[in-house]
Amino acid sequence: MDPIEPISRRRLLVVTGKGGVGKTVVSAVLGRALAALGRRTLVVEVDPRENLHQMMGTPPSGGDIVHAEPRLWVQNLKPRQVLDQVVRDQLKLELLTRRVLASPVYQHFAAGAPGLKELAILGHAHRLLYGHAEVGSPEIDTVILDAPATGHGVALLAAPALVTDVIASGPFARMGADLASLIADAERSGIVVVTQAEEMPVEEALELRRALQQRVGRDAELLVVNGLYPPAPPGGGDSNARENELVNLWRRRRGLQERELARLRESWPGPCVELPQLPLDRGPALLGVLGRCFAAGRPLAREEAWT
Amino acid sequence: MDLTSGPAPRYPLLIVVGSGGVGKTTLAASLGVLSARAGRDTLVMTFDPSMRLKQALGVGEEARLREVPVALDAPGRLDASLLDARLTFDRLIERYAPDEESRRRVLENRFYQHLSGTLGGILEYMAVERLFEVAASGRYAQVILDTPPTRQALDFLEAPSRIVGFLDSGALRVALKGWFDEEGHLKAANRWGPLGRSAERFLDHVVGMDLLRDMAEFFQAFAPLYQGFRERASQVEALLRAPGTLFVLAAGPGEERIPDTLFFARHLEEAGYHLGPIVVNRVHPRFLLDGPPPTAGDPCRPSGWELLTWAGERDRRGLVELAKLLSREQPLVDVPLLPDEPTDLPSLEALGKTFEGRLAEWGRYVGRTS
Fold first, then answer.
1. Which residues in chain B are contacts of A109 at CB distance < 8 A?
2. How far is it, in rounded angstroms, from Cα A87 to Cα A91?
3. Is-above-0.90 flag for pTM?
4. I want to staple A153 with a disulfide (CB 3.0 to 4.6 A). Which of A16, A68, A212, B118 is the partner?
5. Which residues make Cβ contacts (< 8 Å) with residue A73, sequence separation at least 6?
6. Would you call A19 and B150 a contact, using CB atoms and an 8 Å cutoff?
7. pLDDT per position as a tens digit, A80-105
8. What ipTM does the predicted assembly reach?
C-alpha cells in the first residue's frame, strides 16, 4: 500500500489526534512526502511553542512562512493574528482598527466567541490556497494543518458549521460557509488521524471518527499509529538477568500496544499505517528515517513472527 | 517531605499538574490510595480518566454527579469524582440565579450553549469551583486534584483571578449597560451619531448582530449571579495559594520534555503557588548490556535492545540535565516505566509506594550532602 496515495491530491490536509502522539512529526513527514511528489506544500503548526522548526532544522518561524526545502515551507500560526487581520481588512481606517483591537469587548469576543479561533486557523489555510494571499507569499498546492492539541480534534473541523449557525451574516459567516464546504468536500480536503497504541489516544481516535461522521458528515482518509515498539522475541530464559529485564519490559510494552492495535483493527475500517519508535532524538535525522518508514507503508500489523 | 503518611496531613490539598500524557491521573489516584491507607478520608478528583483507571477505581459515569466510594479496604475512606465543567456550571447557575426566569434565560441562551470554554476561563473555573465546594464541606481530610489534560493546564489555575478580572472588566460593564434598544439597534449608535451608526454597520458586517445580541443577553442574564460568583472566585483563589495546598508537578522523561517541565515549575513559583516534588514519570530504566546492543539492518525495524538501551540513556540524560537546572532544594524524583500500566488498586498502591520511596531517598540524599 502506498499511504500517500489516498491523500496526495487533496489541497488541505488536517492532521489531528490527542496531544503528545506525534502530530507534528507526522505532519512534517507528510509535508516532505508531498513535496517529493512535486506538490508545493506548506506545513502550518498551531502551537504557542514552536516544535516544527526543530524537526525540520530550520530557524523558528515566529509567525512567518519559512522556506525549508525544495517545494516545502513551514509556518507557526497564531490564530489571534489571523482574527486581527480580518478586522484590519474590514476596517480600512487605521485609528478605528486600533481602537477596536484594543477594546475589551473585542478582546473577549475574539477569545470567547464559539468557533472563531478555529475558523481563523482554517480561514488562513483557505486564503493561501484559494487566492487573496498576501503579496510575497509562495504559491501553495497543499496546506498541511498540524491541528492544535487542545480540546477535541473535531472542534476544529466542526467550527465552520458552528459559526454559520451562530453568526448569520458578514465576513465570518461567509468564511464559515466557504470553509464548511471545503471540509465537507473529500475531493479537496483530507483528514489524517494520528494516534499511539495506548488506551487514551486510541479511545480519542475512535471517538473522533464517530464525531466526524456525525458532525461533519465524513470519514478520515488515513490513520497513523505512531511510536510502536518492535515485535518482541518469544519468551524464554536468558543468561543475563538484566537482559531478561529488558526483554520483559519490551515484551510487556509491546503486548499493551498489540492489544490496542487489535482494537484499532476491529474498529477502524480505513487505510492505516504504522510508524516505529526509533532510537533517534527529535530532529532532521529522525524525520529522514521516519519518512522512509512511512513510504514503505507498513499497514496495520497482522500478527507476525519475530525474526 | 511527607505527602501521604500519618492521619493529619500537612497538605490537605494536593494538586497534580503537568502536560498531557505524562500519567497525572494515575499518579493522583495512587496518592489517593496511599492517603486512605494512612487513615485519612480522601477524595481524588479527576478530569478524564482512562477506562482502565475508572475500572481500577471501580467508578463509572455516576461520579460526574457526586463523590463515589472506591472499594478499598483501608482505615480511611477513599472516594473518587469526575469533574464535568459544563455540569458544574449549570448547577452553579441553578444555585445563584435569584429566580426561575433568570435561570431559564441563562440556560437557554444560545451563546451559553455554545460557550467554547475560553471565555474568561469560565469553564476551567467551574472545575475549581467544584473543588472549593468539596474542600469547604470538611468531609475529607485529604483532597487530591488532577488537572485538565491540556498543555495549557495552567489556565485552569488562573481561572479564578481571570474570571474576577473578566467580571470586573469593561467588557461586562459595557455588556450590562444594555447595548440594544427595543428595536434591536445598538443604543450607542444613536447617541454617537454618524460614528455610532458606522460602528453598528461595522459590527453587523463583521460578526453579525445576532451573535452580539446573544452575547449581550447572556451577560445581562448572568448579572444577578455576579456578586455571589465574584466572592466565591476570590475564596477559591485564596485556597489555591494557601500554605496547606501543595502542587505536585508530573513530567515526562527525556531531554525534549525539559522546557515543558521548567515552564510549569517557574510559572507555579512565580505565581506564588507552593510547588512540591517534581515527578519525572515513566523513566526508561538503564540497561547495561555486556556488549553493544544488536542492531537491525533495517532502520525502520530497530531491535528492542537498541531501542530500550537508547531510551534508558536518553531518559538518564534528561534527568541529569533537569536536576542541573533546578535549585538543590527542589525535590525531584523519578518513577520508572513499569512493564504494565496499573489496572487495579494494588498496582496503584505499588506505584504510590515507589513514588514515596523515591521521595524519601531524595530527602536522605539532600540531607547527606548538605
1. 207, 215
2. 6
3. no
4. A16
5. A40, A41, A42, A43, A65, A66, A67, A138, A140
6. yes
7. 788 787 777 766 667 777 777 777 66
8. 0.86
